[in-house]
Amino acid sequence: MSLQNIPAREPVIQVTGLKKQYRLGQIGGGTLTADLQSWWARLRGKEDPNVKIGTDTRLFGTTFMALNGVDLTIYKGEAVGIIGRNGAGKSTLLKLLSRITAPTEGEIKIKGRIASMLEVGTGFNQEMTGRENIYMNGAILGMTKAEVDSKLQQIIEFSECGDFIDTPVKRYSSGMFVKLAFAVAAHLDSEIMVMDEVLAVGDMKFQQKCLGKMSDVANQDGRTVLYVSHNMSTIRQLCNRCIVLDAGRVIFEGDVEQAIAIYMDTTDVNVSHYDLRDCGRLTPNSGVRLHLDELTFVGKESSVFSADETLRIQLKWHVQEPFDGVNLKFNLHFRDSSPVGITHPIDLGPCVPGKEYSTILNFDPGVLAEGQYFFYVDIFEKTLSNSVCLDKPNKEFAFEITNPDLTIPEWSPGWGRIHFPPLVIESSEVL
Amino acid sequence: MQQPNESQWTTVVKPRTGWFDIDLQDLWRYRDLVVLFTKRNFAILYKQTILGPLWILLNPLITTILFNVIFGGIAGLPTEGAPSFLFIMAGNTVWTMFAACINNTANTFVANAGMFGKVYFPRLTIPLSQVLTAAINFVIQFVMFLCFWVFFYFNQAKYGAMSITPWLLYVPIVILQVMLLGLGVGIIVSSLTTKYRDLAIAVTFGVQLWMYATPVVYSATSLSNQPLLAAIVRINPMTAPVNVFRKALLGCGTVDIIGLWYSLAMTLVLLGVGVVLFSRIEKTFMDTV
């Protein structure tokens, strides 16, 4: 990109050759002596005695590059979106930018203060009042007491919690809690704001208010916003530049619409079999009592289907404890991550530990318009009062629907995702 | 377009390399946070308790009475002429602060992993706030000690002789030293517990053992015919501070000048090691916790 005709833009973040390596499996040699041996050897520049000969991996576990050489420059006043599939390295990049953990290689240069909002309400204490928590949270995010003092009124007003500000936050509803937390973060004076999907909080009205506040921050105050999300519509609303990450690298940098198109193309429809044994889980504690091992699109090489075809999906799973019945549903999304719908839950029946189960499910995509979709599998247990998630693998099972009906040449995205059956003519007569 | 020169960047994040790169300026910027954490430590500690902050006084008082009954009464350990109760309370007041510094900083990383994983702020603010909390508790307990001191001072004939010595002027320095020593040991332990969790369990036990290696319930001079124990007490950097405290306020025992210098040197060494370890661990501990 030529910079000659662009008015001098001031870089505020410069990332060069950034790599982050994580160790898989067991961390550490396990014993203090082995660690001391390794450390002593490293210190003298000798070979680590605890490394397996012939490999360059550690004795326990292997390594995984969450970021594999990222170069980026972010300029002042930009609102930059970062998108990518789960596991593409977005969260790792944010963690490195907000100095939560150090990179393995490369460096990040930052001009100004960074406020990271990877979560709202960090450091909130249940026992302390709303007001006390504003000071606490503000200080954690890098504000001094004087700064919080000067903004206290604005924060309380924005949070819509004025009447309860001197009540301990443990008496707050979860909505109020989140509103207060966001209000603090939104009033930070930092030159750079790093945000991770925290906008998905509160009711619709508050979400819009948050988004409005965020674009104000970027547009009027000349501050810089880095925003990570799966929600393409907020990316469109907030960002003026976009970065697409895939497998730990930047694969695109530039125009938002182009970036979203590229992001959507990374959906892999050439896979018809998934091994979920080592796959991460979307909710904590899921995948423990019940574990989904495999998912296969039966009888397919790739997961491309015609709209009049039925998707046959085989699940292999096992349980750690007996269940009278477990429920399963698919959460269906369009490839840009916008939700399409869920399937009505079905009961998979009783199951006992020690056996492996294989279930073949039929899904009729009938009303889906042509395009690429993916779904999450959600297996849960229904109790009298609520439902508890048993397993929800962090995997997007992608498939593509093609249109066999040539009477409609190409589906326009503006039409939505559902291709309803034709209207039924009940009666028609000449009047 | 002009590239900004290196000095314009305010922060440079690099792989952990240096041995000593703790950013003191950064820490100073977050001083309000240290104060708030300290307030929070008090706020949450006594929530939903009946006696509330009274526990700050009750805790050392009960321990002192207990020690006094066991070591002063039953075992009859000599106290160099000073009232046994006050003798033990003096040792215990100093020790309580030191132990609190270690015990409360030892789990810094593990206990705050949730918060550390979401926001950057100088991690050292947490141990510092714990030390500050211990220091405030110390002041309160010291006032209680002074009340007892006044009582015993005017009843010397009944309970035993005592006097104030010029060492009193040195007491503030000794207290500061104990705080720094507690901080140093605490952050060493907290840095190691990110990898070796057993240390967190061992530390409570270790601190208790350490107390018995310090002249808290007995006097250092009473060990003259036990060379091994005397040697252990001599290499213990907590011995000199406790002795100074007693010498200053009760006028009993002796202060070994070499021991005092040694203790000061050990404090600086342990604090240095602690800061180095801590600053290395704080950058990547999120990957191991």
Give a verbal description of the structure:
The complex is a heterodimer of chains A (431) and B (289). With 431 residues, chain A is an alpha+beta fold. Chain A folds into three domains: 11-75, no CATH class; 79-265, P-loop containing nucleotide triphosphate hydrolases (Rossmann fold); 273-406, abc- transporter (atp binding component) like domain (Coagulation Factor XIII, Chain A, domain 1, Distorted Sandwich). In chain A, 21% of the residues lie in helices and 30% in strands. Chain A contains eight helices and 20 strands. Chain A has helices at 32-43, 90-97, 130-140, 145-159, 174-186, 204-219, 232-238, 256-265, and strands at 11-23, 63-75, 79-83, 105-110, 114-117, 192-196, 224-228, 241-246, 249-254, 273-275, 290-297, 304-306, 311-319, 327-334, 339-342, 346-347, 356-363, 371-382, 387-391, 397-402. The termini of chain A are far apart. By secondary structure, chain B is mainly alpha-helical. Chain B has one domain. Chain B has 13 helices and one strand; from the N terminus they run βααααααααααααα. Chain B has helices at residues 24-29, 31-45, 55-74, 84-105, 108-111, 113-116, 125-153, 156-159, 171-193, 198-212, 227-235, 239-250, 257-288; one strand at residues 11-13. In chain B, helix 4 (84-105) runs antiparallel to helix 7 and helix 9 (171-193) packs antiparallel against helix 10 (198-212). The mean pLDDT of chain B is 85. The chains are: A alpha+beta (431), B mainly alpha (289). At the A-B interface, strand 1, helix 2, strand 4 and helix 3 of A face strand 1, helix 2, helix 6 and helix 13 of B. Strand 4 of chain A pairs antiparallel with strand 1 of chain B.
